[in-house]
Amino acid sequence: MVGRSPTFRHFRKDKTMKLYSDEELSKILDTPVFHLIGQTADQLGVECYVVGGYVRDIFLERPSNDIDVVVVGSGIKVAQALKERLGRKAFLSVFKNFGTAQVKFKEKGGNIIEVEFVGARKESYQRGSRKPIVEDGTLEDDQNRRDFTINALAICLNASRYGELVDPFDGLYDMEDGIIRTPLDPDITFSDDPLRMLRCVRFASQLNFFIEDETFDALVRNKERIKIISGERIQEELNKILMSKVPSKGLYDLHRCGLLQLILPELTALDIIEKGPNGRAHKNNFYHTLEVLDNVARHSDNLWLRWAALLHDVGKPKSKRWEPLAGWTFHNHNFIGAKMTPEIFRRLKLPMDTKMKYVQKLVDLHMRPIVIADEIVTDSAVRRLINDAGDDIDDLMTLCEADITSKNEVRKRQFLENFRLVREKLSDLKERDFKRLLQPVIDGHEIMQMFNLQQSPKVGILKQTLKNAVLDNVVPNEREPLMALLEKTAAEMGLHKNPCSDALQNN
Q1: pTM for the complete prediction?
Q2: Any idea which architecture 179-263 has in CATH?
Q3: 15-177 is classed in which CATH architecture?
Q4: How far apart are CA 266 and CA 368, in angstroms?
């Protein structure tokens, strides 16, 4: 058994759960869609149940749009019959290879309803694949194959038992206690389908639940099985962990069970503390990274900003040096981390488009505002930062502020105050530069010289024409296109160019 750090001990302060009787459940499901499904199943003489996440979220009082229905018989036939009852407003998709079907339709209020149908089944697995061998089965067989007890609950939709809860593995008690546990032997559950190991950590992270001891020990024993899972499926679960309210919980669980070493070894490499010749040690950059990630999560739901927080220090192990005067240094770790980012994204099958470039940019630039904040904040330094960060400057500042995790409160406050000054300088420069950029490069004095005019309404009309053209992005704020527009407008007003104006401009 791997020990638990007191820093990450499980406390479910936000626990919200409500217990319902079967009668109360029948009232909760007293909606047209569930009655239609039940009536359709009764018409065909088969049992049907709403199962999985939808049922779980009823008790956890969480919104859910995913409706999964298990039919003891053919789920496809029930879906087809439901489509006929709904008529043209419904759309049916059948997936014969998987024995599933989906019905999609719009309710009167405009809400889109999607219902997935599957026949009750039992599954068996071969060692080298997570693709199951599927056979028809009973409701019990179907619940046995579920990944976790909290996802194995079912509510009957047949009229005679409408609202009746079927909970063979005490999933309700596990929800009440905040526990993630497998219905059957966790070693078999995880070995059969290793993706369930990541789902286990993901649910614990999303719901702020604790992974039951026996289940956690099985994660440790079966971690090597994750190697048969594709990068696409791994990153899907990682993304959901990162989007948790407190993503550090999921990352820490992945680390302590050994899965993180197999899927993101660049992060586990940060969990090393070395002492220099004088006995001075550097901070644990792994736990620092988790703290930065949580800081970012409190201020932004941007998945790719959270990835930037996760990877911002991955270059530190390769850049670590002991210098007698300075102690431990990590020079250019931002540059090294930026170079590592594409390979990490490629391995996990994350998008290699602008999203990767965005993460790479933030990893590369995350030290710049800190350097600026630690010195005198000059216009030129901030302007160069704006130029390099572009539209992502605000996200970069969010990352940098999250990166201040010093235990020295005085230094922490000083950095944050300096960052406030940087933000003020950013805002001021943006406003000034914006106004400057929107001011046409040809002014009123030049217009008066060019057309031999005195101060008059005609000068104002010409100035306004140029200004409107720039503001409306009709022409760029450049001399040549603005001059062409000016001469055209002046000609339309009957104004003639002063022959001496070209000579005056050249001088």
Answers
A1: 0.79
A2: Orthogonal Bundle (1.10)
A3: 2-Layer Sandwich (3.30)
A4: 23
